[in-house]
Amino acid sequence: MKKILIVDDEPEIREVISFFLESECQAEIIEASSGLHAIECLKQNPDIFCIICDYRMSPGTGGDVFKYLLEIKSKALFVLASSERPEMHEEFTGHTLAGCIEKPYLAEGLKKVLPFLKSGTESATGMLDEYSRIKTTLLYRANVMPCDIYLRLSKAKFIKIIFAQDVFGEDELKRFDLKDLQYLHIKIADYSIFFGKLEKDFISRVATKNLTETESLNLSLEMQETVHSLSVAMGFSEKIETISKTNVSLALKMIEAKPGLADLLKKISITSENYISSHSLMLPYVACGLADLMKWNSDQTFYKLTLASFLHDISLDDDALAAYSSVEELKTDMLHVKTWTEAQLQEYLNHPQKAAQIVTSFHEIPPDVDSIVAQHHELPDGSGFPMHLNYARISPLACLFIIAHDIVTYCYKKGNCIDMQAFVLDREQSYVSGKFKTIFVALKKSIALKNS
Fold first, then answer.
1. 316 vs 383: CA distance, rounded Å
2. Which among 33, 98, 99, 318 counts the fewest CB atoms within 10 Å?
3. What is the pLDDT of residues 31-82, one digit of tens each?
4. CA 403, CA 287: separation in Å to the nearest integer?
5. Which residues contact 60 (CB under 8 A, 6 or more apart)?
6. Rounded CA separation 98/442 (Å)
7. What angle do CA 75, 123, 354 make, to 5 degrees?
8. Residues 235-283 pLDDT 10s
9. Quick check: 41 and 30 in contact, CB under 8 A?
10. Domains of the chain listed by start with CATH number
């Protein structure tokens, strides 16, 4: 059973949070009344899964607890439960929290972080779902089924329709498409077997010599779609990490070959049907192109930007939701065009930090990748989200990544038209401060040289 530590100097607050968690997930609840008390609890319980922590306490603040977690390199999730935002305290600068609960709105805040907590605990009933849905396109990629596949007939009834070692080919994919069935189901117990086959297939194909540019891009898109689909359905795993890193290696091979960027981008079409995967595929080439322009062209920098590109939207499930470039645009549609729910709005607002949390689960990755991902929707004037950082508090690589992300979004909204001259004219007043200005000026000069 996973352990959750609740840290607050007010007993009533601890009692409310404990009651909520005990009704929603099966976990061992530990309570601490101060920062120092929490650190002692962490020393006695190094396997604590999550800390929900107030900031202003004595002796020892929430910041002291967070610094201790960094010091011992703990993988525990840290949720700040305070009336103060994390950016108000320097201890959290440059780091990603699992979530923030704004006092006094405890119930609303706890509901937002509940998915994190449930990902590591059983439900209150103690029952885990036996099946998970899986896209038919993934079955097509696997071709020969390593396990049985099921069709869901009702909430509690599943029927086996494809047997292990059966072939799921193009005819089967079309048959389910005609029935408007995009998902079938797999037993969670078979998840590792199925994913293991995909992992081996991808690694084998990447190792193939003399892949053409188009073949490499198609394979990269397949891997990106696979990672996204399975991470949404099943959560993070080491196999997802392996395929992500394999995809990074393939993209870096393409980047090192220094292809003509404009010609390459014309071969990548961002579509509304697979927006998350297709725009994530275009992003590393734009980001690394900008980095090369700035002479920030070390192997490690390219690796950071490419991994961040592939993972920055990994926690989002809806392609249409991911396509929004700002909170204002989404809220406007909520009022006038499309009925998004409040839960979906919160999913959008929280996705940079959730994705950054997944990044921190990876083994042996260079620093800064989680910060790039966490900050990819921030803006120079501080009007971005989720932390409302201004240009002075956004890391240089994140500044570059934000501009690259803006270019890719601009391209998509212009019907996949890559007009860099139009982009710099439209964004003339957007990037006028700090590193943003330096990168944007370099981009303008490069475009002017090409057009002279």
1. 21
2. 318
3. 999 999 999 999 998 889 889 999 988 899 999 999 999 988 888 888 998 8
4. 8
5. 34, 35, 36, 37, 38, 39
6. 35
7. 40
8. 677 778 889 999 999 999 888 876 566 666 677 888 888 899 999 999 9
9. yes
10. 3-123 (3.40.50.2300), 129-189 (no CATH), 271-451 (1.10.3210.10)
